[in-house]
Structure formats: structure tokens, C-alpha cells
Amino acid sequence: MSARILIVDDEPHIRTVMRLALEGSGFETGEASSGEEALERVDKEGLKWDVILLDERMPGIDGLETLKRLRHGHPDAIVIMVTAFASIELAVDAMKFGATDFARKPMTPEVLRATVNGALLKVRGEWPPAREATAVSVERPYEVGMFNGFRLRHVGAGATATEQRFDVIGPDAGTSRRVLVQFAAAVVAAATQTAGRPLDGEQAFWIKQAALALTHYVWNHADVPPDRLLPIARTSADLLEAAHQAGRQAS
Amino acid sequence: MSVRSGLLASFLVFVLALVLLGSWSAWHLRELGGASRRIIADNYDSVLAAQEMKESLERIDSAALFFLLREDGRARAQLQTHRVQFDRSLARAAHNITEPGEAEIVAGIRALRDEYYTRFDKSADAHVGSARQYFDQLEPLFNRLRGRIDDLLRLNQEAMRAKSRAAEQVARQWFVATLWLAAALVVASLLLASLLARGIVRPLRALTAATERMSQGDLNVSAPVPTTASEIAALATAFNRMADHLRELRQSDLGRLRAAQQLAEAAIDSLFDPVVVTDANGNVTRLNRAAEDVFGPETSSLGQPISRITAGHEIGSAVWEAIKSGRATASPDATPTVTRSAATGAAREYRVRTTPMRDDAGLVLGSVTLLEDITHLREIDRVKSEFVAIASHELRTPLTSALMSVHLLLEAHTGSLTAVQRQLVEICRDDCERLDRLMVELLDLSRLEAHESPVTPIELTVQDLMQGALETLRPQIEAKGLTLTVDMDAKAPPVLADRNQIERVLTNLVSNAVRATNPGGTIAVRAAAEAGEVVIAVRDTGLGIPAEHLSRLFEKFSQVPGGPSGGAGLGLSIAKHIVEAHGGRIWVQSEPGRGSVFSFTLPTMTHPAHA
């Protein structure tokens, strides 16, 4: 495939290696060293780029601002945010601004290619599914987001609400692996205590937490968990915060 | 004067009055009796005597007639008898001369009698019974004698009458006098009694009133000490002494209470953290200085419902929760309360901790809320997060190009490498990937719960402890086509373990075992008593661990090269930490190609934790 990829990053090294990686797979590439430069190029040449790799943190206009302005002029531009976000929660924040595809720095060339290929599905109309429409659901980011070329689809619960199954699709469209996310009793107990009411039956809560945990794993490892099982044995501050909110809502 | 003597005195007076009245009456009665006796003695006898004389005279006179009628015998007899009687009576009358003039009359009677007797005898002897003699001589004498006797009679009768009248008068006088005396005595007695009563009752009433007031709680009373009624005076004095003592006691008690209260208030005030005390209805009763800084002066807040004072904060609901449920509540660490300090205007973050106050009976008296200042903790948290965010970007950016470069070097389209070059590039690639993983773990660490929860062991049987965890892990094991065998020694003594924490250890060991073992293998979990300890072992038939890595296996971030990746490298170090916190030991035996056994001990009641 000779899709055209625009690489936007202020670091020359990163531009170089990304270009080499993508050209090695037969992509056509272009470079911009800043948000402003990228916007200029698009303005001048029109949106001839199939996918734009956009570094999130740049001097001048940062990635999110560039994305906003880009989308303003070209609402169907396909943009992959390249970021070193430590956790997925920050990515979810970016989704409020209309970002849906993410690639994590540092990555291997394979991951980069998988991400680009995943994004190209959009070009071909194969992804996302029709129900996504244009609205980005921040509540269920896993349904619309692509992380390092992986997407999640919720399948159903396991034995209890604290076990949830997802299909992880990626790195290419044809690969789908089913993963079970399991929360340890200690974690469930901690969440219940924080919420002030029993949470073990709350499907919606655990689906979201499981999706977040699995997305986080995929984000950090660019792969499914070993043995398709992701046991969550430790609580995180964000899970407790979500539990606290859940407790508040009920009362 | 004492009550006793007063009573005695009044009694005596009363007795005296009675005696007086009685003596007066008795004396007069006696007098009266004397008067009667005197009447009888003095006059009645004379009257009788006179009447007898008259009767005798009549008979003598009739004797004379008998003589006239020539009845001499009868005449003489009668004469004899009645002369004797007359004489006797006259003697009686003469014996009873009491009135003035009575002696002359009696003398006259005697003289007349003598004359009459003489004339009579003469007549009798003359026998000349001439009626004429009788009528000429005897009869006038008879009449004169009778007249004289009548005089005597009259005299005595009048005397009697007079005496009776006198007595009557005296009696009447005495009656009136007695009435007056009695009245006077009654009045005097009444007066005396009322005086006495007043002297006793008034001070008693005053004393009673004072006692009543004191019982109501007013200790500033004093009873008047009467000058009379010394017993009551003594009582009043004693009462006043008692009142003094009670006042002193109360002062000292109050003093002590006040001192204690001041101490408690000072203690609360000295706390840097704001403290809010409410009653059982949620109204504010106390704000310490720090709380006043935050919520405004205590004076304007006292008595207000807590939610009004701390508007916008969750303190109100925490207070109600604590009072209703009777248990302490605390806001979750994730959502502290933010307040603005009135003094400095600085915003500080607090964790709200509310505890109900109970009395000895267990009744909820109110609540105490402590706002724990965690501003600097949160600040540290924020700085840490900021650092992590910056570090993640800064460290990862150069690693991106490095990692990509080495990967690209190994790809065909960048040119071929010599064997040595390939080896070098592979080394670089491996280490870059290792760097990447390290950074992932580091950043992951910072978002996961930083502190380890304290180990709270309870006594559990081994089955109880492990059953739940193992059943949860079974699907994972069997999903990989492995067999799980469980061997619990029923005779093993109960262990002291924190269920959640040991579950974590088990989960970690079993997950490692599953990862290390290929499908078709076995994972055996065994718990047995050995030399007084309980040993739990997880054995797998997996890849095994080379001897040189065994010693460092339980350290943080340890990874066995060539071993199954995917773990954070922390599981075993955490497991070791937990087991050692329980007072147990953890160790591993392994043979590459044969499998590994991870074992740990837990303390029992008889074999408590090692120091």
C-alpha cells in the first residue's frame, strides 16, 4: 500500500526513524517539525495525507491544539496522537478533544506500522463500526479508541461482574484474541469500602474498569496479556476515585 | 433562754395559774362550806332549840290545862317530861349563844321560865284551879315566855337569813372574781403561749425556709440565729456552718471542674488541626482556634447546625453519618475537603475524620470532627505526579529514536549486517527494550497504591485461607491446559494470617507458575505442618530457574532473562514483603527443565512470628 503518512514531531531523530520505519513498509512519508508547519502544509497542499502522525508535546502549538485546528478545516482527517503518556487516563482526556487513535512513545517499528495500518482501516471505512458515528464517547473510550494499533470490543461478563471478557483486535484487522480481565477479591473489597456500598454486582463499573485496565496493558506492552488473562491484584488511585464516584451516585 | 426552759416555765406558769385558781376556788368553797356550817352550827341549833322550847312550852301549857281539868297524873307526867325537855333545849340555846342580843334573850327566857315555873308550881299546888288564875297569871307568862322564845327564834332565823344572804353575796362575788381571774389567767396563758410559740416557731420557720432554699440549690443562705430558743439557735448555727462547708465544697468542685474544662479546651485549642465538636443534634458546640480560622469565630457558630457553618463541605454529612451509625467516618483519601484559611487566605486540604462521642452508657452525646491537614502530603503527591509526567516524556523521547533505530538496523531494508554487528545490535535492542519495560514499571508503580496496607492477621484454618484464592485461580490454570492439585493437611494447626494479603501472595506464585509451565503440566499447591510451622508450597512442572538467578529472584524488578515476561517484576518482592510482615519466610527451589517450588511459612498460635 502506498498510503501517505505525514510525520509531525519537533525531534529530528524521531522523524528520521519513523520515516525509515514507514518507508521500509512501502509508505510514502512527509515531515513537519512543528504544529504550525503541519498546518501550513495541509493548507497549501490540501489534505493529501491519509494519516497524520502527530506528536502530542511540541513547542509552539502543541499536538492537541494542532489537532483541533486541523479538524476544524478537515473534519475527516485521520490523526494518530503520538505520546509518552504514562497512563491511559490522560489519553482519555485527549479524547475529549476528538483524538481517538494513539501510539505510545517509545515504540518498535512493528507497533508503529500496526498503528498506521489500523488507522488506515478508517480510510477504507472498515473501522470504526457504524455505531461510533462522530461523537467520541468518553465513557466508553475503548469502543472507539485505537491504542498502538489495538482496539477492544466488550464481549460479556465472566463468572461474576468482576470478571469481564474483551476481544482485542490487532495489530492487524484479522487478529482477534479474547482476553479475560479479572479483579482480585482484595481490589473488589477496597473498591466496595471506598464506595460505601457493595460494588461486586455493578456490571457497568467493572466493565469500565476492566476496559481501562486492559487498554492500559495494551498501551504499555503493545500486546495482549500472557495467557489471555489479566489479573488485577492491586488497586490504583483512579479505581478508588471511580469507586468513590460510584458510591456518591447511588446516594 | 432555751426552749426547754421556756416550755418548762410556761408549763409551770400554767400549773401555777391552775394552782392559783384551784386554791382560790378551794379556799372560797371551804369558806362557803364554813359559812353553811356556821349557819347550822350557830343558828340552826338555836332555832331547833327554840322550836323545841316552844313545843315543850305548849305541852307544859297543856299540862296546866290538864291540871285545870283535874288530870293531875297526866299533867304531872307531861309537865315533868316537858320541863326537862324545855330545860334541855334552853340549855342548848344557852350553849349556842352566837348573835348579839342572844344572850339577853336567853337570859330573859331563863328568867321568864323561872317565873313561869314558880307561878306554875304555885298554881299547881294551890290547886285552885281557877281558870282565872290560869288566864290571869299563867297565860300571860306563857305568852311572854313564848314571845321571848319567838324572839330567840326570830333572832336566829334572821341571823340565818342574813348569813345566808351574806354567803350568797360572797358566793356571787367569788363567782365573778373567779371568772375574772380565770379569764385573766387564760389571757395571760394565751399570751405567754403565743409568745413562747413565736419564740420557737419563728426561728423554726426561718430555718425551714433556709433549708428549703438550700435544697433548691441556693447555697448562699444563712439561717437567722435567734437570741432566745437556744436549741434552735444551736440548730441554726449548725445549719449555717453546714451551708458554709457546702459552699466551700462546691467552690472547690467547681474550681476543679473549671480547671479540668480549661485544660481540655487548652488541649483542643493547642491542636494545629481544626476540631469541630457538635452535640447529638448536629449543632456546633465548640470550635478550636484552628477551626475558627477556617469557619469563623466560635461565638457566631455556637448552636448552629454543622452544615450551615461548613457549607459546601462534606463535613455535615460525615457528622450525621457518625451520629446515626455510631461509628467513626472518614473522607476517602482521594477526595479531601478543601478549605480556605480565613487568617492567611491560603487554601489547605484536609482529610475529614468524624468520631461519635459516647457517655458511659453508650448513648451518643455528639461528634468530634478532626480536619487532618494533608496539604503537604497532597502537595508531594502532585509534585510526584508532575515529576512522573515530565520524566515519562523526557526519558521516553530519546529512547524512542534509540529503540526504533536498533530495530530498523535489524530489518532488511536498512542493509545487512555482519554476524558480529548483528549481535551487537541485538544486544542494544534487548537493553533498549529492557529500558522501556523498566520505565513502564516505574511509571506504573507511581500510579498504583503507594502504601502497603498493614497486615491484620486473624486465626484461620489453612483450608479457609486458601480455598477461595485457589478456586479463583483454577479457571486461569485450566484455561492453559494445566492441572491444579490441592493438598491440604487437615491436621495442620490454624495460622495467623491476613486473608487478603496471603491471597495476593498465592495469586502471584500461582500466576508465575502458570506462566512458566507449558500446557499439560501440573501445578500442585500443598499445605502441611512441618516442625510446628505451617508450610505452603506451590510446585510447577515448568521451565525452572537457573541457579545463578535464584538468589536475586525476590528483589524488585528482577526478571529472569529468557523467562516468561509480562510480569512487573515486582510480584515476588511484594510476596516476600508480605510473608515477612507476617513473620514467615519465603524461599524457592528450582531445577531448570524440571520445575520450581516456591514455599513460604505462616505463624501459628504455638509458633508465633519470628522477630
Oligomerization state: heterodimer
Low-confidence segments of chain B, ≥5 residues, pLDDT <50? none
Spell out the helices and strands of chain A N to C. EHEHEHEHEHHEEEEHHEH
β-sheet strand percentage of chain B: 5-15%
Characterize the main sheet of chain A: 6 strands, parallel
Helix percentage range of chain A? 40-55%
How many helical stretches of chain A?
9
Structure, briefly:
The complex is a heterodimer of chains A (251) and B (611). Chain A has 9 helices and 10 strands. Chain A is α/β, with parallel strands linked by helices and 251 residues long.
Tell me what you see in this structure.
The complex is a heterodimer of chains A (251) and B (611). Chain A is an alpha/beta fold and 251 residues long. Chain A has helices spanning 12-24, 35-45, 63-73, 88-95, 109-123, 141-144, 185-195, 203-221, 237-250; strands spanning 4-8, 28-32, 51-55, 79-83, 101-104, 146-147, 151-157, 163-169, 176-183, 229-232. Chain A is 42% helix and 21% strand. In chain A, helix 3 links the parallel strand 3 and strand 4. The termini of chain A are far apart. In chain B, helix 1 (3-68) runs antiparallel to helix 4. The mean pLDDT of chain B is 82. At the A-B interface, helix 1, helix 5, helix 7 and helix 9 of A face helix 10, helix 11, helix 12 and helix 13 of B.
Which key features would you list for this structure?
heterodimer, A: 251 residues, alpha/beta, 4-stranded mixed beta sheet, 9 helices, elongated, B: alpha+beta, 5-stranded mixed beta sheet, 15 helices, 63% helix
Secondary-structure map with pairings?
The complex is a heterodimer of chains A (about 250) and B (about 600).
Chain A: E1 4-8, H1 12-24, E2 28-32, H2 35-45, E3 51-55, H3 63-73, E4 79-83, H4 88-95, E5 101-104, H5 109-123, H6 141-144, E6 146-147, E7 151-157, E8 163-169, E9 176-183, H7 185-195, H8 203-221, E10 229-232, H9 237-250
Helix pairs in contact in A: 2-3, 7-9
Chain B: H1 3-68, H2 72-95, H3 102-126, H4 131-215, H5 230-270, E1 275-279, E2 284-287, H6 289-295, H7 298-301, H8 306-309, H9 315-325, E3 329-330, E4 337-340, E5 347-358, E6 364-373, H10 375-409, H11 419-447, E7 458-460, H12 462-479, E8 483-488, E9 495-497, H13 499-516, E10 522-530, E11 533-540, H14 547-550, H15 571-581, E12 586-591, E13 595-602
Parallel strand pairs in B: 8-10
Antiparallel strand pairs in B: 1-2, 1-6, 3-5, 4-5, 5-6, 7-9, 10-11, 11-13, 12-13
Helix pairs in contact in B: 1-2, 1-4, 3-4, 4-5, 10-11, 12-13, 13-15
